[in-house]
Design a protein that fits this description.
59% of the residues lie in helices and 10% in strands. With 405 residues, it is an alpha/beta fold. It has a four-stranded mixed β-sheet, sandwiched between helices. It has a two-stranded parallel ribbon with strand order 1-2. Helix 2 crosses helix 3 and helix 7 packs antiparallel against helix 8. It is globular.
Length: 405
């Protein structure tokens, strides 16, 4: 005594918080705590306060029996801001349970590939582009989550960890690592680097997730490694200079965007995943062409390409071609009879409509004097960057539509 932080709901500030302060000052001439974190109330799905008279209360023990304590904890923290009430939905608890399953499945994949192999930390030059990208991302995540937690932004912090594990680590890096793991005999150094990165990044992510989901993180942590006794007393992740790979991070983000666009394009045209086609990547920027040329092995299978040709100029005919556009890049796919030109024109028309709307919204913000005067400069600069990106993409899509005749 005195302590540091009191966590309480806003409904008992007068009844509890202020009386503790007054009593403490009266008897000890000292305040009992220096910080009060005020959270909201958990309401039912209709927004009503839980009460005996309404019979709308939720027994947390029933939730835990059905979905686990970690799932309940994550549900109460996700999307939660200090002082704001939240509504309880069973669907959100199920989603939290699914997230726990996602982590289990990722762990099983790593353990299955580890087997009895002795994995060692690779030399910097042995790390592949995907390895460097995910290390750089978890490095950024550690700094961001620490900053958020220092500011009591628990809901923001846990959402960042959730998105990183689900999307970047599970949906992207695990898929990107499979090629190195499958070629273990031909390229053992690359396979070792991928295994070490898988294990290391998951452990770092588990440490960041541990305050929010303590049980599953402890169980997996103890299974994955022997160097530290418990995740509860393990070293908290900190930003490391040797895990900073900004160029590789930008390159992989560009490749991710391209892969996502091509997948949407193929899905819109009902092209089966088993159908492989030639793919043309066209960009006037030499660095961009280098990124797609050097990392072809990473993304070729992800987008169902039989081969990839990187070009500076677009001299391809429009007939039998489908197009996807990202900033600075046009991707052309010859799908022959699979392409319905009328449907392709319709799709490009929808994309033009979307980009026109985004451009109009961005122009509106940048012409608003109040926004320019009050918003932080970095936000204004970010909006200008978005506006330039939308304008460039709109011009590229319009060119593709015109080429179809």
């Amino acid at each position: 005594y005195p302590t540091n932080t009191l966590v309480t709901g806003y409904d008992i500030i007068t009844f509890w918080v202020s009386r503790m302060i007054f009593s403490a000052l009266h008897y000890t001439d000292n305040i009992p705590f220096d910080t009060v974190l005020i959270h909201g109330l958990v309401r039912d799905s209709l927004g009503r306060k839980m009460s005996k008279s309404l019979g709308n209360g939720i027994d947390p023990l029933e939730v835990i029996d059905k979905y686990g304590a970690d799932a309940l904890r994550l549900t109460l923290l996700t999307g939660n801001a200090p002082g704001n009430d939240m509504r309880f939905y069973w669907e959100r608890v199920e989603n939290s349970r699914n997230f726990a399953n996602k982590i289990w499945n990722a762990t099983r994949f790593i353990l299955m590939n580890l087997g009895d192999a002795a994995v060692t930390e690779p030399a910097p030059e042995e790390l592949g582009a995907a390895d460097q990208w995910i290390l750089s991302r978890v490095n950024d995540l550690a700094q961001e989550v620490t900053d958020n937690m220092d500011k009591f932004e628990l809901g923001v912090a846990v959402q960042k960890v959730f998105d990183f594990i689900w999307e970047e680590f599970c949906d992207w890096y695990i898929e990107l690592s499979k090629k190195s793991l499958q070629a273990r005999e031909e390229a053992p150094a690359a396979a070792n680097a991928a295994l070490w990165t898988l294990k290391t990044v998951l452990i770092q992510a588990l440490k960041l997730l541990h305050p929010f989901m303590p049980f599953i993180t402890e169980e997996i942590f103890d299974t994955l490694q022997d160097e530290e006794e418990s995740i509860m007393v393990s070293a908290w992740p900190v930003r490391r200079d040797d895990w900073c790979f900004p160029e590789e991070e930008r390159a992989l983000e560009q490749i991710k965007e391209a892969v996502s666009k091509v997948r949407v394009l193929r899905n819109d045209m009902n092209v089966a995943p088993s159908v492989r086609t030639e793919l043309f990547v066209i960009s006037a920027d030499a660095e961009t062409r280098k990124v797609f040329a050097e990392n072809e092995a990473l993304y070729r299978n992800l987008i169902g390409a039989s081969s990839v040709i990187v070009k500076e100029t677009d001299d391809l005919g429009a007939e039998g071609m489908a197009s996807a556009v990202i900033p600075g890049v046009v991707i052309r796919i010859p799908l022959a009879e699979l392409v319905d030109v009328a449907k392709e024109k319709e799709r490009l028309g929808r994309e033009i409509e979307r980009l026109t709307g985004e451009l109009k919204r961005s122009d509106g913000m940048l012409s608003n004097e109040k926004f320019l005067a009050r918003a932080p400069q970095e936000k204004v600069d970010a909006e200008r960057e978005k506006r330039d990106k939308y304008a460039q993409m709109l011009a590229q899509v319009q060119e593709q539509l015109a080429a179809l005749g």
